[in-house]
Protein 1
Amino acid sequence: MHDYLISALILLTVSVVGLNSVALYIPATHALYESLYHTAELLAGVDMSTTTKDFISSHGYPAEHHHIVTEDGYVLGVFRIPYSHKLKNQEKIRPIVLIEHGLMGGSDIWFFTGPNHALPYLLVDSGFDVWVGNSRGNTYSRNHISMSTEDPDFWKFSWHEIGYYDIAATIDYSLQVNGQGHQAVHYVGHSQGTTVFFALMSMRPEYNAKIKTAQLMAPVAWMSNMEYKLVHNLSPYLSNPYNLFTRFMENMEFLPYNKYVLRTFANVCGRDQIFRPVCVYLINSYYNSTRWNNVLVISQRDVPAIK
């Protein structure tokens, strides 16, 4: 019974947060809100001006931020580590590897554990030309040649379009910019990053020739056998394209990312906050903690010192 109650609470939260198609809009003149939640931003420790490029360059690696336009007009923010400053291999042949994030993720997540552990660093230090993608709609890919994020049609896409357009564009762009005559890339995907890969390879089979190898972590193709409680509890509401909830949410951003949302979460789930035990309970209830790396030790030098 408690699973259904939690699912109902999640649905209610998503509905409230999604009332605005892009983000929660709170005027800058709203002094009361600012005064109440100013400390929460400090508590969250979030600097929204820090980018993936900052994480990369803070450790001495060359970092590039590219903007790739897809066939249907979305502008993707993609990051590149072209070579290793440790190997000084910028004049050597460097195979291309494209890394794609999972659901509700982005390029940042690949770098948090630092050069001694994070996959992009390990790959570039092994001689690869590393590209880290961002799918349409996330923090780094919120532009379009003719639509703004205020336009409901901007959000009218799924993993199908991400695979068909975004991954295809990123592969083609990386092959061109690398300039070393490569005809194919190595692909690394996690979760949704595998689903979009399957979609591209199935719907545009010519792209199979542009893949050397594919490393698919937590691959998702058919979800009927998933043990994930959140999927099973929400699927009756989200799988029917004609019900009220799906029609209400189909053209809206899921969990908008802005400082007000971050501050709200910080006040609810931050350390020493009264509702933190509830947040921990939800995580333990819906995520399989046996698959977490609880023994990873990250030294202070692994954490980027960004002001």
Note: The CA atoms of residues 182 and 298 lie 35 Å apart.
Protein 2
Amino acid sequence: MDAAVPNKLLDLAVQSLLSNESAAIQALEDIPRELFVPLFIAAFKGGHKSILSAMVKVWPFYCLHIGSLSIQESHHELLKAMIENLPVCPAQNSSPRRPKLRILDLRQVTYSRITCPEVRIKSPLCFHSCAYSDHSITKIEGHLRLGNSGFETQSPRPVELLVDLSLVGSLMEKEFLDLLMGKVEESSGSLHVCCRDLHVDKLSNYKCTLKFLDLKCVDRLLVDKGSLSDINRILSRMAHLQSLSLFKVSFRSLSGKVFKNFLSNLKHMENLKELNLASFYLKNHLDKMLRFIPPGLDFLYLPFCNLSSRDYQFLSQSPQATHLKLLNLSNNTMHWNDFGPICTLLVNLSGTLQHLELNNCLISDAAISVLIPALIRCTHLRVLGFASNPITMPILLNIMNNLTPLMELKYVIYPIPVHCFDDWPFQGSLDRRKLAIVQLQLKTMLELAQRNDMKWITYTE
């Protein structure tokens, strides 16, 4: 028999069920377990809210993940329906298919399957279950196994709901939060909302919401607009943060208690891999911050931080910046004396650096000529951005000649040469005819170098 035949039969069975929702819901008690995953995928893609609601109630596996399924705005009603019907206080009944679902994961995780493989029958596990919260299934059931057996039968079974939250003030977000809080109340404490990725816009508006969440679970935190004192309060509740992004953060002094508390919080972030501090004033104090960061940082963003020569000098010698994969120093002015330390930094990172951004740093022809020998040693570089710098056309062509041998380099964001403007910087109008000639020259050079896989792009607005 053709190997494709069973798959075609399975597809036909799924489509037959979806064509009659009431019959499909009734059949959930009897259909084979193997049919649940393909039926769930098809029902989700097709927007079959009633079928999804019923499936969650009788899901025959330990966990259910959205995984790589694409979530559009139209799917939010489906996600809400799944939460509403998640069994958190299952009734004792003799149904042939009592709910087994313990972990509902509504995050988009491309490497996740709809269900985890059942490697253990008596004690199933989920590869994405919460590992840190005291309210997690792992912690609660671990305590129960150590305690008396009678307590286990009286307590409601713990359930986990894995989500990523973006608190930006939308009506949809408010409705979602109200649903989560209502579900936790309904569960009488058995439901643990595990937020892994948290984005907060205007932190002062969400102090009460953040009290509701167990911040021990958060892997990635992004705060856009907030006071450093408020940020310190939530960082003190996070023990396993892997990514921290702070934009437009206000504080009075780099020598005050609030900044010192921030440094103390950084010191305890042993798992931190990514640090993004945009518009975070650090002039002459980068050394204080970097000394408190545990080694192991992979991604460092410092745009609009008003860095000084002292900061560049320390960065070039810092053990915390010896194996970065990404470095963004954009929108910090660089003077002639700064390029020695920056060259040293690039040489130190030549074995690991994959993404470098030096946009709008006032890098001149002479400065970029100094940087080229260090840049060409970064053989693992994949993305380079140096847009909005006052570079002339001859130097731009020289840069291209030097960079095309870097076979892993695929994307370059280059500056528009100064001759394309009536008056540098940007006060004069851009001559698009001159820019078109520049683009044609660069395209021709890439073809001659046989680097059609390399993209050179620029900003025209």
Note: The chain has 17 helices and 13 strands.
Protein 3
Amino acid sequence: MPTSTHRISSLLPFFSLTASFIFLLLLFVSFYISIASGNFYQDFDITWGDGRGKILNNGDLLTLSLDKASGSGFQSKNEYMFCKIDMQLKLVPGNSAGTVTAYYLSSKGSTWDEIDFEFLGNLSGDPYILHTNVFSQGKGNREQQFYLWFDPTADFHTYSILWNPQRIIFSVDGTPIREFKNLESNGVPFPKNQPMRIYSSLWNADDWATRGGLVKTDWTQAPFTASYRNFNADACVWSNGASSCTSNSPSTSNTWLSQELDTTSQERLQWVQKNYMIYNYCTDNKRFPQGLPPECSIS
């Protein structure tokens, strides 16, 4: 009959293999999390601003600043052909009048596509305006603007864009605020043929940003700083003329490619648009005297 010492010694290889497996599993999980949550050194390049854009905390934080001499900006290393992106932003606090923090997807060329978040600064105590727009084939004029239901300068909040072949959904902290559907069958251009990069910038736009340009930037408050963290992308990366998403991709990993608003999300969208929308191009008859754009009359 084997002794307890023999039994333990016979189990040592098992424990060793198990420990090795757990170690490798934890290593894989930590690597996956690091890829999913993103690292600014890996994912982005600061493209302008002469040192006013900074990547900090080992790549976990990015800041853009603006002074009277210049603003700053960055762009993604990758191009995407459809994606679901999240970024946490903390906007310029205090008197941010005249400043614009832009966070958007865009392609290149004269017939570019673009999906915009723009945060229009304001005087201390007055709310930011969240400006959204969709360009397709170089044509925009699809602005919707919102107030937010929180102070976007007090803490970080998540701003998301879902762009798939059927729709574009803008969300704030997981709450949808706008949906732009693919209505090509009704003659409405939709961004689907041009890969886009992520761009962000902080710049002076006091000729129009705050009360139509009536309120100018107070440079005694400079430098103005916006902060970014926790970037995440589920995306079809475009490289060398091909997409990383293929018919062989696991369907469970690309569910966002066919994602749509469920009933609860539609109710939350309606709540935001009822209570916080302050401008909608689809109701601006003076701007479109020949008739509103066709997508405005299609549910």
Note: The two ends are 79 Å apart (CA to CA).
Protein 4
Amino acid sequence: MSSVLQKAARPMWTIRGLHKSAVEVLKHPAPEDTVTASFGKFISEVKPQHLSSVVLSRSKRMVLDSIGVGLLGSTTEVFQLALHHCQLVYANHDVSSVYGRRGTKLSPTLAAFVNGVATHSMDFDDTWHPATHPSGAVLPAVLALSEMMPANSKPSGLDFLLAFNVGVEIQGRLMRFSNEAHNIPKRFHPPSVVGTMGSAAACACLLLLSPSQCSHALAIAASLSGAPMANAATQSKPIHIGNASRLGMEAAILASQGLEASQLVLDAVEGVAGFSAFYKDYAPQHLESPSDNDGHAFLLEEQDMAFKRFPAHLGMHWVADAAASVHKHLVGLGPGTVSPSQIQDILLRVPLSKYIDRPFPESDHQARHSFQFNACSALLDGEVTVESFTPTAMTRPEILQLLGRVRVEHPHDNPANFNQMYGEVQVALVGGDILKGRCDSFYGHWRKPLTQESLRKKFRNNAGAVLASDRVERLIEIVDQLDTNRDCSPLLSQLQ
């Protein structure tokens, strides 16, 4: 594959009708009555005109948010470790850009990897239902692959958005085949599975692979998927997203070169597990391909995205908002600030999920996955922010005192499901009064989506950590107009 990457300066693959030269596209018909074949056919045949105005608008919001989160993530230690690893271990192929590093380029697959790591390094990326982080696994791969294309063969903005949306769509469709997937995960991190499949689908779409090759790309990706939940709340969790982006791209490239895999990987075959290896209750259905005259109802049209206001696991946003409402009451009762001396006991009523139940987190990654820490931070400060997870903020005596007073209950009516859960915070004051706060849908949830103004404010704060303000504003403008651009070069040129 390195020889292919070294020749990236000359045309390699067809991009929506443009010339193909370097890689011979091999066509092998797949049985048309299988679930796997239906997915391959959809990826190969869906067109930009099938993207509705709602899908275009929502996906551009996802692209903007994901880029901003990735740029901020390029300042983290885990990103630096991943980048140093790639520069130390692998040969240099100066092809695709790295978030937040002017002049630094890697091979396309490694750029997808480190940018995926950056996107999830602070757990600040978007979240969907069923539970996964769809953008971080797909966008870095689509960006890196687009940058790999020759200057006269860059995908248009619409083709770029189509590939991105195909990657998101495939993730959503696969997760809806399982009831287990609707709940907060216990066994494996979903982006490491459906994210890899989504990246493969997006790249296969961008490479204009045949239906059979698209099916093979998915099957190859399935063999490159999976990461255990034991690594949540550690520096290894962001690697799940980086690997999903990178390995999905590799699966599509391998399929483009003729590598074959199971033609039944998405089907339910008794005695031989395909994608059902990941979900015990997997019940797949065919995915219909749109005709030239008929549209396709993308899942993003019916199910909006959740965008986080602060960098932590999505479940933390419920308890943070509930605790912030208690903070307001406490401030009104006292001298304008909250002191641990006012508080005798803190009770959290949250879903049962072991990996986000961390009474005394010892790192920023653990704190981002701690009901207790995020509730206490919001109770003390009135909000949770990027700065809440700095060593100085985490080791404040006031935070440590409050953490020692937290109890947790798991009501039966509070399932570990991002579409049904709630967060409740009950504070017993020293004088005997009880204050309660409850959040059923936080601001940023798909039921209460961020306004465009709020989303852009988040982007400006994140991207502004590494880019000058004029480039931040230019990125906002480029993403907003992406569907009207003849090619995606303006976007690619602004990312460093």
Note: The beta strands are 96-97, 105-106, 343-349, 406-409, 423-429, 434-439.
